[in-house]
Amino acid sequence: MELKTIKKIGVLTSGGDSPGMNAAIRAAVRAGFYYNLEMYGVYRGYEGLIQNDIKKLHSGDIAHVLERGGTFLKSARSAEFRTPEGRKKAYDNLRSHGIDALIVIGGDGSLTGAHLFYKEFGIPAVGLPGTIDNDLSGTDSTIGFDTACNTAIEAIDKIRDTATSHDRLFFVEVMGRDAGFIAINAGIGSAAAAILIPEKKIAVENLVEKLKVRTKAKKASNIVIVAEGGKSGGAAEIAEKVKKHLPYYDIKVTILGHLQRGGAPSSYDRLLASKLGVAAVEGLLQGKYDVMAGLINHKVVYTPIKRAIVDDKEVDEDDFRVAKILST
Ligand code: F6P
Questions:
Q1: DSSP string spanning 199-219?
Q2: Residue 315 domain-assigned?
Q3: What is the pLDDT of residue 177?
Q4: Confidence of residue 201 (pLDDT cuts 50, 70, 90)
Q5: What is the CATH number of the domain that holds 228?
Q6: Alpha carbon 186 to chain centroid, angstroms
Q7: Higher local confidence (pLDDT), 177 or 237
Q8: Residue 307 φ/ψ, nearest 5 degrees
Q9: Does ligand 1 have an atom closer than 6 angstroms to the CB of 124?
């Protein structure tokens, strides 16, 4: 592959925001300055690329952002970038600023955009896994996943106080579109009675049986974690079905929702984002294009974007086994 001269790099965040995105931007920009590059912020993701919302970044722009949740570059889901015309506009804007390469921080949709852009216009791009869902291959953890799990656990701990005080059964729905990583992690970490994830279908009868056994065993409280988009339905739907079998139970549903996406990034997410931000710039300078930088066993690994976005990262069977043992 031909090594391109890279002097100006654009950075954008796209899709759902995740805690640690700011830390990743800051690391990429600082690394760019270290290697004497000009760094540009593209605001509102691909939407900003199409609308030419692009500004040169200075070190003051990235002061005190590492510890902040969200993304100061803002984020969006762009329908126009999915069209060839939209991508052509984006390319023209990029070139009008003389930007030679892109760093895209986001989930699978955002990285798909970077891949297409490279294929169509040859713009070198490195993706960083920025999503709370942890559903990208080529990295042990995505930026924001650890913080989202911590946030979920903190909220569930509080819900448990009421569950115990009132002998209530709670169904708590966590995020993770089509992926059960937050559910399994937060479920084990909060001693859930059961964890329902999209990857595994569980019959309501089995769940009811399990809850009956736990009631007989006089468990202090019962909290069932349900991943959104689960095969068995969302928390409200499952709670309704269970209620038919256990009418004597006082059942409540809590949907944690977007609170899981906000807040200051955890120590792990700050480290992950910082390492990957530097890796993105170094990767581009070494001619690693159309790849996602991830961390596997604490080491930076570059995975072709096409490979990283394949929907085959699975919840660890052993996590599932442990959750089962601990909730019996
Ligand atoms: O991909 C991150 C995520 O928070 C998913 O867990 C969730 O399904 C989705 O984004 C929600 O998206 P939006 O904020 O656009 O409703």
A1: TS---HHHHHHHHHHHHHTT-
A2: no
A3: 85
A4: confident
A5: 3.40.50.460
A6: 14
A7: 237
A8: -80, -40
A9: no
Q: For strand 38-42 and strand 54-56, is the pairing parallel, antiparallel, or unpaired?
A: antiparallel
- Establish whether residue 133 lines the binding site of ligand 1, counting it when its CB lies within 6 angstroms of any ligand atom: yes
Does the CB atom of residue 131 touch ligand 1 within 6 A?
Answer: yes
Which pLDDT value is given to residue 229?
Answer: 78
The half-sphere exposure of 82 on its side-chain side, counting CA atoms within 13 A, is 6
By residue range, what is the domain housing residue 194? 145-261
Supply the residue whose CA is at minimum distance from atom 1 of ligand 1. Answer: 16
User: For the chain, what is the domain count?
Assistant: 2
pLDDT(230) > 90: no
* Ligand 1 pocket residue status of 175, Cβ below 6 Å: yes
Pairing of strands 169-174, 251-255: parallel
State how far the Cα of 14 lies from the Cα of 117, in Å rounded to an integer. 14
Q: CA-to-CA distance for 247 and 144, rounded, in angstroms? A: 39
Is 133 designated active site?
Answer: yes
Please give the model's pTM, rounded to 2 decimal places. 0.97
List the residue whose alpha carbon is closest to atom 14 of ligand 1.
16
Q: Which among 133, 135, 146, 290 is annotated as catalytic?
A: 133
Assign residue 274 a region (left: φ > 0; alpha: ψ between -120 and 50; beta: otherwise): alpha
Q: Which atom of ligand 1 is nearest to the CA of 260?
A: 4
pLDDT (tens digit, 9 = 90+) per residue, 44-82?
999 999 999 999 999 999 999 999 999 999 999 999 999
